[in-house]
Structures are given as C-alpha cells and as structure tokens.
C-alpha cells in the first residue's frame, strides 16, 4: 500500500515552544488512524501541523507523493487536506448549504451525497450555521470538509460534547465515509473504546512523541496497553480534561 500522507522528521510547536520534537508517520490509502493520548500530549498540535497552522521548525510533509511542506493552510486544503477542527469553525452566518458550496471542489463528494449521509443536514439546508444543534454543527463541519474532496480527513475530537445517540450516528457515518475509499483519516478521540471499532490503527502520543503504534485488533485484545498509556481503559482521560481545564 503506497503512502497517502507522509510526515518525516517533523518538528513543530508554537512560538519558541517545541511540542512535537521529531515525528515520522505514514498513512496509507483508506487507513483510519485513531490518535490517542492524555491531555496536552500534542494530538491537536499534530493535526494542526498537518493543516499548517503551527510553527514548523524542520521536517517535511507529503500528500500523495507531492511535497506540501511549504504550502499555506488554504493551499494545503485545496491540495487535499480536509480538516474538522475541535471548534468546528462553521460559517455561522451562512446557511448549511452555503457552508458546503463555499469550499466545494470537484470529486465524488458533492452536496447530494453528503445529504444522503446526513439527512438532517438536508432538512436544515436553509438554516444558518448559528441555528444548528451541536450534533448538526459537527455533521456540517464533516460535510464541509468532505466537499473539498480531500485525500486526508483530519478530525479533532469529533464526538466531544455530543449526546451518546448522536455520537453513535456520527461514528456510523464516519465508518461509511472511510469505507467509501479514496481517503485516509486521522481521528483524535477521547473515547478509546468507541474509536477502536472504527479505526484500523492506533497511535498513542506522549510529549509529542509516538509511544505506541498498533492495529486496533491488537489493542482490543490487550486492554492493559490502554490502561498503561491512557490511565483509564477506554476513556482516555476525558474526565481529567474538564477538571484540569486543559486547552485543546
Ligand atoms: N496555541 C498554543 N500556543 C502555545 N502552546 C500551545 C498552544 N496550543 C497548545 N499548546 C501547548 O502544546 C501542548 C500540546 O497541546 P495539544 O492541544 O496539542 O495537546 P492535546 O493532546 O491535543 O490535548 P487535549 O487532549 O487537551 O486536546 C500543551 O502543552 C499545550 O499547552
């Protein structure tokens, strides 16, 4: 399997602070990677570094064999980096449909296909971004990233703060999206057990460094690893996050 995303010796952070000292990570087509780790271990920083909104000290990034290291975030988006940030960042004063058509690029994912995936979005297509529930906003953020027809889809805690029934709906949709092929995904998720059912590979970070890289199947049969690296088997410290008020 050829690598769709190829991160090589990436050193990145903010200002003078190095959060990711030296990251090398490759992702093949259709691979779904769950990125886990305790709070503040650099998961969001890694996602943001692929998007291009952190400071890069050194290292390279390639997408589909093309060097994207020197591209700006908007150029990386057009090159095929789809991003669903933790804050969702939907356009609040545009309608659901306008949010998607504003950034659309040609490819298999068009608005019609996204409505098939998320019928709620079609029901709400003339509503403004600021009139949506949290779950609907997240569906829209995913739909908007897909209309770019990305090669890589980056999702930063897509289920955070959503009701369990919406979480299940979203994860089922993400399963369909990733099985449809053509893209690889990185999903940052606090709920390890839920994401193990969707991801085929799991990478655990500590201090911006990969400390464990395994298949989901291997992790499922060895829960002690999750316990060791995340503290709570299956729930990746989600309680600590809010107690500590950690930025993310
Ligand atoms: N904009 C920023 N400027 C400076 N430092 C930052 C910034 N954002 C994050 N950091 C620091 O970078 C480190 C990694 O944070 P990051 O948000 O990447 O971790 P995370 O694993 O995603 O954590 P969480 O689970 O809380 O989202 C932390 O020490 C954090 O304080």
From TrEMBL:
Keyword Translocase: no
GO biological process: L-amino acid transport
Superkingdom of source: Bacteria
Database matches in InterPro entries: AAA+_ATPase, ABC_transporter-like_ATP-bd, ABC_transporter-like_CS, BCAA_Transport_ATP-bd_LivF, P-loop_NTPase
Entry-linked Pfam families: ABC_tran
UniProt domain ABC transporter: residue ranges: 5-232
GO molecular function: ATP binding; ATP hydrolysis activity; branched-chain amino acid transmembrane transporter activity
UniProt keywords, alphabetically: Amino-acid transport, ATP-binding, Nucleotide-binding, Transport
SMART domains with a match to the protein in the record: AAA
Family that this chain belongs to: Belongs to the ABC transporter superfamily.
Function: Involved in beta-(1-->2)glucan export. Transmembrane domains (TMD) form a pore in the inner membrane and the ATP-binding domain (NBD) is responsible for energy generation.
Protein name per UniProt: ABC transporter ATP-binding protein
């Amino acid at each position: 399997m050829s690598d769709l995303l190829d991160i090589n010796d990436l050193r990145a952070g903010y200002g003078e602070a190095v959060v990711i000292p030296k990251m090398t990570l490759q992702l093949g087509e259709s691979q779904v990677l769950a990125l886990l780790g305790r709070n503040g271990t650099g998961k969001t920083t890694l996602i943001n570094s692929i998007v291009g909104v952190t400071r890069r000290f050194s290292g390279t990034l390639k997408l589909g064999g093309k060097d994207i290291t020197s591209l700006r975030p908007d150029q990386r988006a057009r090159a095929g980096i789809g991003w669903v940030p933790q804050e969702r960042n939907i356009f609040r004063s545009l309608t659901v449909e306008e949010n998607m058509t504003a950034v659309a690029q040609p490819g298999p994912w068009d608005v019609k296909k996204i409505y098939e995936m998320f019928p709620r979005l079609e029901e709400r297509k003339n509503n403004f971004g600021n009139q949506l529930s949290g779950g609907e906003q997240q569906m829209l953020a995913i739909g908007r990233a897909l209309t770019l027809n990305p090669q890589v889809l980056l999702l930063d805690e897509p289920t955070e703060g959503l009701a369990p029934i919406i979480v299940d709906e979203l994860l089922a949709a993400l399963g369909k999206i990733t099985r449809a092929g053509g893209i690889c995904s990185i999903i940052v998720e606090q709920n390890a057990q839920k994401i193990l059912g969707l991801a085929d590979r799991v990478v655990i970070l500590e201090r911006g460094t990969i400390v464990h890289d395994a298949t989901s199947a291997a992790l499922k049969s060895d829960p002690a690893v999750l316990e060791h690296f995340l503290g709570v088997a299956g729930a990746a410290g989600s309680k600590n996050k809010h107690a500590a008020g950690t930025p993310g």
